[in-house]
Amino acid sequence: MLLAKVRGTVVSTCKEPSLNGVKFLLVQLLSDSGDPLPDYEVAADVVGAGIGEWVLIARGSGARQHEGYRDRPVDAAVVAIIDTVSLDSGALYNKRDDFS
């Protein structure tokens, strides 16, 4: 799984029929120090994440383990909204303290 920050939404009215009803988010991957990486990805949202939230991304077959996504052409999914991230050096992120 990867750390990412939700940067926006992706809307597509013309798509594979099995993707109807799926919410897509534009996420920016984060480094192990919490810094934004130059990489962005579109991920299906299965947890109801919002813009600005830190999330966990599952890729590949792991993205299709959520009920209802097994037969959909999804390669990345937001599978968790992060509350805190801690390192041996201390707290990296706390949702309660994030105002971005």
Written overview of the protein:
It is a single chain. The protein is built from no helices and 7 strands. It has one domain: OB fold (Dihydrolipoamide Acetyltransferase, E2P). With 100 residues, the chain is mostly beta strands.
Short key terms for the protein model shown above:
0% helix; elongated; 7 strands; 100 residues; single chain; 47% strand; OB fold (Dihydrolipoamide Acetyltransferase, E2P)
Topology:
Elements (H helix, E strand, L loop, with lengths): L1 E9 L13 E7 L5 E10 L8 E6 L16 E6 L2 E4 L2 E5 L6
Parallel strand pairs: 3-5
Antiparallel strand pairs: 1-2, 1-4, 2-3, 4-5, 6-7
Question: How many separate helices?
Answer: 0
Rg, please? 14 Å
Rounded mean pLDDT score = 89
Strand content: over 45%
Largest sheet report: 5 strands, mixed, barrel
Strand tally is 7
Classify the helix fraction into a percent range.
under 10%
Order of helices and strands: EEEEEEE
Q: The CATH topology, please? A: OB fold (Dihydrolipoamide Acetyltransferase, E2P)
Distance between the termini: 23 Å
Structural class based on helices, strands and sheet pairing:
mainly beta
Shape: elongated
Low-confidence stretches: none
Strand order of the largest sheet: 1-2-3-5-4
The CATH C-level name is Mainly Beta
Summarize the structure.
The strands form two sheets. This protein has a five-stranded mixed beta barrel with strand order 1-2-3-5-4. Strands 6-7 form a two-stranded antiparallel ribbon.
